[in-house]
Amino acid sequence: MSSKRHSIVPPVSQSGPKPPVQFSSSITIADSAILTGANLITISTESVIHPRAKIESLAGRINIGRRCVVQERATIGAVGSAGKITEAAVTLGDYVTVEVAVSIEAGDTIIGEGTTIGVGSRVGAGAVIGKHCTITPHSDIKAGVRIPDYSVVYSNGTRRVDKRPVAEQLKYKGLARQIDVLRRMIPSNPAKFM
Amino acid sequence: MAPLPFSPYTFIQCPCSDSTLLARPADAKSPTGADAEEDERTFDPRAPRSNYSLYPLEYLLYCEDCHQIRCPRCVSEEIATYYCPSCLFEVPSSNLKSEGNRCTRSCFQCPICIGPLSVTTQETRHPDANLLSADNAATPHSGGFSLTCSYCHWSSTEIGVDFDKPNGIHAQLAKIRNGGESRLTAKERKERRKELSHRGDSAAAAAAREEIEEQVPDLENQFANLKSFYNSQLADPTAADNGLSTLGDLGFSSPSSLSRIMNLYTGGKISDNKAKSRLGAIREALTPEEGLLVANLDEAALISQLHQSEHCDTASMAQITSQPPNLGEPALHGASRFTSSLRPIPHLLRTKRSKRCPVCRHIISKPEPKVQTTRFRIRLVAGSYIPSISIKPLTLPGPSGSSSSNPSDLLISLKPVHYLLTFKNPIFETIKVTLATPAATPGRFPSKVTVLCPQFDIDANTDVWDEALKDNDRSDKSSRNSGGTTRQRRGTEAGYQLEVGKIWERGRNWVSIVVEVVPASLRLEDGGMLREDEDILEIPMFVRIEWEAENAGDDGGIVPGAGGKDKDQKEKRELAYWCVLGLGKIKQN
Ligand SMILES: [Zn+2]
Ligand SMILES: [Zn+2]
Ligand SMILES: [Zn+2]
Ligand SMILES: [Zn+2]
C-alpha cells in the first residue's frame, strides 16, 4: 500500500558497496535508511533506525547501543571538517535518542547512555557527551567538547546541570513504549543491509 | 551570502505627522484648505521625520467621522481586558491593583529557558518500587507535585520546592522559600502577633515571638516591621521623646499630627523648621523587630560559591530581570545571583485594547471583551476605505520591449524601466483617483519619474456575483469592440506600446497604470560614499481620491433643517494623502 503514495523526495540511491554490519535480531531498520562506508556498523538490541536516517562508517566503526532511536534525516558518522579516521567513529550508548536532522560527526565521538540530541543539533568530531544529557534543538556541540553527565545544553550555548532525583527507570519505560509503537509503524528490512 | 531580493513596497503617510492637522478641528466639509497647503511642498520620504509617519496599509485605521487615516502612533488606546496568555483567564482590574500584573493561578514559565512549566506528579524516589508496581496505575504517588519544564527538564525540585496540591500553585509558591522551608505571609504574621498579644501567657508569647524573629528577614518581613514601627512613631512621638503618656489622646493634639495638618495649609514652607524639630523626635528603628536590618557585608560564602561554579551557573541579566519580585527573598545582600536559585516566573498578563480617534474621540477599534474570541466589535481598518497599491515591474515581451528585468535584478542607472501600479478599490462607490509625483525624486540622486496616466476612475467594489452576471452582458458587447476579453488591455492592438494618458489594464474594481522611471546615476563627483539606503529608488506620490457617498445625514456640517430631500442626495467626499512607493535598488558601479 505504500507504493500508492508518492513521496516528493527522490528515491534513495544506494550506491557503492554495502558496509559490513552486525545487527541484533530485534532491531527495526527502515528500508530507506542509508548505510554507507567501509567499516563495521553495529546496531544492538531493539534499536530503531527511521527512514532516511544516514549512518556513515567512512571514518571508522559505528556502534549503536540498545534501545536507541535514530530519527529521520539524522546523520551518524558524518565526516566533519577534521576528517580524520579513527578506530571508533561514533559510539552511542544505550537509550540514546538522536532526533530529526541531527548531525553527529565522526572521530571518537561518544554519546552517553540516556542522552537525547534535539532536532537539528550538530555534534562535532570527538565530542564526548555524558549520560542522561539533554541537548536542546539546534544546539551546536563543538568538536572535542566534553559534557558532564546530567547536563542540559541550550541552543544559545548556555548549560545547566540537572540536579533532579534520577528517574532513569521512568525515562527508559517511556522510551521502550515509544520503540514498541515505532516497531509497528516502521516496516523493518534488515536483510537489505546484510 | 547573496543579498535578499528587493520586494517593492507601499507605505502611506498618516496625517498625524503634520501637527497642524491634528490641532485643527475636524471639518469634513472643507478639507481642501489643508490640501492646498500640502500641495505646495513635496513630501520627502528620506527626511528623518518620515520614519515615524510611514506605515504599510495593513497597520492603518480609519476614522469614519473625521474621514481621515489614523496610525498606531496617533490613536489613543484604552485597555479593555487583562488576561493571562497561558490560561486565557480574564483578570478583573480590581485584582490587578492588589495582586499585580502576573497570573495568580498556576501558569508559570521556566526561569532558565522561559518554556511553559507544567504541574507534574513527582517522580517516585524508589525506582525499585516503581518497577514492581509499574502496571498498577492506582498507586498513590509518594511525593507531592512539582513544576517541570518539558523543554529543558528544569524542575522546581531543583530549588527544593514542591507542592501539596496540583492547583493554586501561585499561592503555594508564595509561602515556600527556596529549599522547601515554609514562610509566613504578611497576613499570617499579623494574625500570629495579634494572637500573641491577646494571650496573657508571657513565656509562651516570648517563645513564639522568638520563632517569628528567627525567620530570615525577607523583604516583606522587613517592610511590614518598618511600617508598623513608623506608624507607631507617628502616632505618638512624645512617648519616645519625653516618656509622657498620651493616654486619652485621640491623635489630634499630637505634635506630629498637628504639623502634618499645618503642612497641608502652608505648603510646608513656614513650618519647615518646626517640622524638622518634630521629626527629630521620631527615632529610627533600633531592633530587628522594629525593622532594623544590619547589612551583611560578609560575602565570603557567595565568593567561594562563585569560585566553585562555572560561568553558566550564574544567572544572566535577562534571567534576573524576568524574575518576579520575590517577597520571600532575603533583603539586599542576599539577592540571588545563581541560576540554581531562580524561581518559576508567573506569566505576565496581556491586554486587549480598544483604540480611539485622537481628534473626535470616536472608537475606531474595539475587540470583543471575551478573552477566547479573537473577533472585533468595531474595527475600521484603512484597507477597507482607501485603495491598495501593488507594484510589479512591467516586462514587455517582443522586440519593442523597452525593459526586460527580473524582479530581483538591480536597476541600472539611466536605463528607463516601467512599473505597473495596480489600484484596488475597496469601497462600494466608483472612485476617481488623481496621482501626483515630483518629476524627480528628492534627495542627492534624483531619478526621473513619469506617471503615464495620473487620473482615472476605478469601478465600485460591487458584489462578485452581480458582477459575474453583468460580465456576461458586457463580454457580448466588448467582443465586438476589443477582442473578447472582459479586461480591456490597451496595449494589445498597439503592439504593447505605452500610451500616455491611457489605463494599462482594468478589472472589476481595479485599475493598473504604468509609471516610467529613469533611475539616477549614483556617481558622486567628490568620490564620497553612499549613505544608507540611498541606492533604493523611492517615489513620493500624492494620492487624491474623490467619490460620492450616500449622505448619512449624521455629519455635523449639514444643516438639520434641510429636510428629507437631502437624504437621497449624494455627498461629495475626498481624501488625500502622501504615500511612498519603494520600487527597487539601483545598481552601484
Ligand atoms: Zn497617525
Ligand atoms: Zn494563567
Ligand atoms: Zn526550561
Ligand atoms: Zn475621528
From TrEMBL, chain A:
Coiled-coil ranges per UniProt = none
According to its UniProt entry, the protein's GO biological process terms are:
mitotic spindle organization
**Localisation:** Cytoplasm, Cytoskeleton
Keywords from UniProt, A to Z, are: Cytoplasm, Cytoskeleton
* TM regions (residue ranges): none
Q: Which domain of life is it from?
A: Eukaryota
SUPFAM superfamilies according to UniProt: Trimeric LpxA-like enzymes (SSF51161)
Q: Name one Pfam family in it.
A: Hexapep
Keyword Cytoplasm found: yes
Q: Kindly list the GO CC terms recorded for this protein.
A: dynactin complex
Give one GO term, molecular function aspect: dynein complex binding
Which segments carry the region annotation Disordered?
Answer: 1-20
**Nucleus among keywords:** no
Give the function comment from the record: Part of the dynactin complex that activates the molecular motor dynein for ultra-processive transport along microtubules.
Q: Which family does it belong to?
A: Belongs to the dynactin subunits 5/6 family. Dynactin subunit 6 subfamily.
Listed name of the protein: Dynactin subunit 6
- Organism classification: Eukaryota, Fungi, Dikarya, Ascomycota, Pezizomycotina
TrEMBL record, chain B:
Major location category of this protein:
cytoplasm
Top-level taxon: Eukaryota
Positions of region (Disordered)? 25-47, 180-206, 469-492
Give UniProt keywords alphabetically: Acetylation, Coiled coil, Cytoplasm, Cytoskeleton, Isopeptide bond, Phosphoprotein, Ubl conjugation
Has keyword Lipid metabolism?
no
Question: Would you tell me the Gene Ontology cellular component terms?
Answer: dynactin complex; stress fiber
InterPro entries, sorted: DCTN4
Comp. bias intervals (Basic and acidic residues): 180-201, 469-479
**Where in or outside the cell?**
Cytoplasm, Cytoskeleton, Microtubule organizing center, Centrosome; Cytoplasm, Cytoskeleton, Stress fiber; Cytoplasm, Myofibril
Q: Which PANTHER family match?
A: DYNACTIN P62 SUBUNIT, DYNACTIN SUBUNIT 4
What family does this chain come from, according to its entry? Belongs to the dynactin subunit 4 family.
Question: Subunit notes for this chain?
Answer: Subunit of dynactin, a multiprotein complex part of a tripartite complex with dynein and a adapter, such as BICDL1, BICD2 or HOOK3. The dynactin complex is built around ACTR1A/ACTB filament and consists of an actin-related filament composed of a shoulder domain, a pointed end and a barbed end. Its length is defined by its flexible shoulder domain. The soulder is composed of 2 DCTN1 subunits, 4 DCTN2 and 2 DCTN3. The 4 DCNT2 (via N-terminus) bind the ACTR1A filament and act as molecular rulers to determine the length. The pointed end is important for binding dynein-dynactin cargo adapters.
Question: What name does this protein carry?
Answer: Dynactin subunit 4
Please report the organism this UniProt entry assigns to the protein: Cladorrhinum samala
What taxonomic ancestry is recorded?
Eukaryota, Fungi, Dikarya, Ascomycota, Pezizomycotina
